[in-house]
Amino acid sequence: MLDSPPATLRVALVLSRTAVAEEFGGRVGRIVIRWLPVVVWMAAIFEFSSVPGSRLPGRFGTLAHFLTYAILGGLLALALKRGRPSGRAIALAVMVASLYAVTDEFHQAFVPLRTPDVADWGVDTLGSLVGAWTALWLAQRVGRWRGRGESVRAQ
Questions:
Q1: Residue partners of 19: CB distance under 8 A and separation at least 6
Q2: Which of 19, 52, 127, 154 could form a cystine bridge with 70, CB 3.0-4.6 A?
Q3: Nearest to 38 by CA among 108, 97, 120
Q4: What is the pTM of this model?
C-alpha cells in the first residue's frame, strides 16, 4: 500500500488548485476547477459522436464507450461531491451521465453511418457508475494521505 500519493498526482493536484484558483479567485475559481473538466469532456464526447462511422479510427467498441463514460462519471462525481454524501454524489453523477448518454445516442441518429443503440447507453451508464465510485474512492485515499500531515506541495 502506498504511504503517499504518486508524484504525478501530487503535481496535478497542486497545479489544478493553485493556477485556476489564482486566476479566477475565490468561489468562482473553485466552481471553475470543479466544472471545467466536466464541460470539456462532454464536448469531447460530442465531438467523437460527430465523426461519421466510416471515418472512425479502429473499432470504437464497448470498451471505448465504457471508459469514455467512466471518465465522465468520475469528473461529475468530483464536481458534485462538495457538501454531499458520497452515495448521493455518485447517484447524481450517474443520472447526469446517463442522461447525457441518451442525448449522445440521439445525436448519433443524425450522423452518417452512425446509429443510436440502447446497449451503448447501458454500457455508458455502467461506465459512469464505475468511474464515479472509483473517483470518489481515490479522492478519499488522497484525503487520507494529506490528512497524515504530508503536504501535496512537499517535495
A1: none
A2: 127
A3: 97
A4: 0.75
φ, ψ dihedrals at 71, nearest 5°: -65, -45
The confidence score (pLDDT) of residue 88 equals 96
Could you give the CA distance from residue 135 to residue 142 in angstroms, rounded to a whole number?
A: 10
Work out the mean pLDDT of the chain and round it to a whole number: 81
Q: Which bin fits 49, alpha (ψ -120 to 50), beta or left (φ > 0)?
A: alpha
Residue with cell 498526482: 9
The secondary structure element, H or E, covering residue 125 is helix 118-147
Say if residues 131 and 72 touch (Cβ distance below 8 Å).
yes
Q: String of b and e for 129-138 (b: at least 16 CB within 10 Å)?
A: bbbbbebbee
For helices 118-147 and 86-108, angle between their N-to-C axes, nearest 10 degrees? 150
CA nearest 55: which of 12, 100, 113? 113
pLDDT at 149 over 70: no
- Axis crossing angle, helix 26-49 with helix 62-80, rounded to the nearest 10: 170
